[in-house]
Amino acid sequence: MGSAFSSSSSYLQYTNDFELVIRSTKDLERLLETGFNAPSGKNIGLHDKITAAQNSHGLSHDTVKKLRYLVTIRNKLVHDHNFNSLPDREHFAKSYDSVEKELKEKLNGSSSGCIIS
To answer: Cα–Cα distance between 90 and 5 in angstroms, integer?
Structure first.
């Protein structure tokens, strides 16, 4: 089924908003758990995992804001009976792509490239 963290460029292939949102946020959740040691379990939500990763790995305010946006959209789509489609698919996908890239760069240690000793 591919690498542990699939390429985000394929997410817009999903024409169904539910599939796009669920698949992308499942991948984010896995990335947070495996790459950032965010806690896992039935009673631990994605917002809790974001907070844990933020506290332990110093995620930027911008990254955390985008992550929370993605998770909020996911929660609305899953739990709000009247919320049945993305208000802006392109914005959602671009936000996902940006967050995924930033998280993977953080894991690979390729931030600015400038090291002061």
So the answer is: 21
Q: What gap in Å lies between CA 10 and CA 103, rounded to an integer?
A: 18
Measured in degrees and rounded to the nearest 5, phi and psi for residue 14 equal -80, 120
Question: Mapping DSSP to helix (H, G, I), strand (E, B) and coil, where does residue 85 land?
Answer: coil
Between 61-79 and 89-108, two packed helices, what is the crossing angle to 10 degrees?
Answer: 130
pLDDT, tens digit, 9 for 90 and up, residues 14-52: 779 999 999 999 999 999 999 999 999 888 999 999 999
Q: For residue 27, what is the DSSP state?
A: H
Q: Tokens standing for 11? A: 């997410």
Segment holding 70, helix H or strand E: helix 61-79
Q: Could you give the C-alpha distances from 29 to 87, 96, 102, in angstroms and in order?
A: 22, 12, 15
CA angle 47, 51, 57 (to 5 degrees): 140
CA distance 46 to 8: 19
